[in-house]
Hints:
Blueprint: H1 2-14, E1 17-25, E2 33-43, E3 49-59, E4 70-78
Antiparallel strand pairs: 1-2, 1-4, 2-3
Amino acid sequence: NRAEFSAILQGLFSTPEIVELTLETVAPGQRTLQADMLLLPMKNDQGEISRILGCLVANGAPSNPPHRFSITSHKVTRIVASDFQPKRTRTAGFAEAARRFTAKPARREAASHLTLVVSDD
């Protein structure tokens, strides 16, 4: 199923779509193992689909590897979204206006919490 899987991946990279695959493997002398695969497109900083986030879940305990899965069915869900920017209701910055900083001479506290230790050795 490599050609079919390749075509599915090409579609996922060219159009944003979610792909769900149902897989199955049958090894001689072993039981059938079924699995589900989910493939999600991911955009890069330029807005292009350049990566895929995927997950494979096998139903049951796997037998001796390696496993060669075949695609029994697949479902494609097209993602329809626009790249809109939500309207900002606030301006960027702090909530309050900044107060002007004025340097005041520091008052000496009666009991200081810090002690300066000097060693002239």
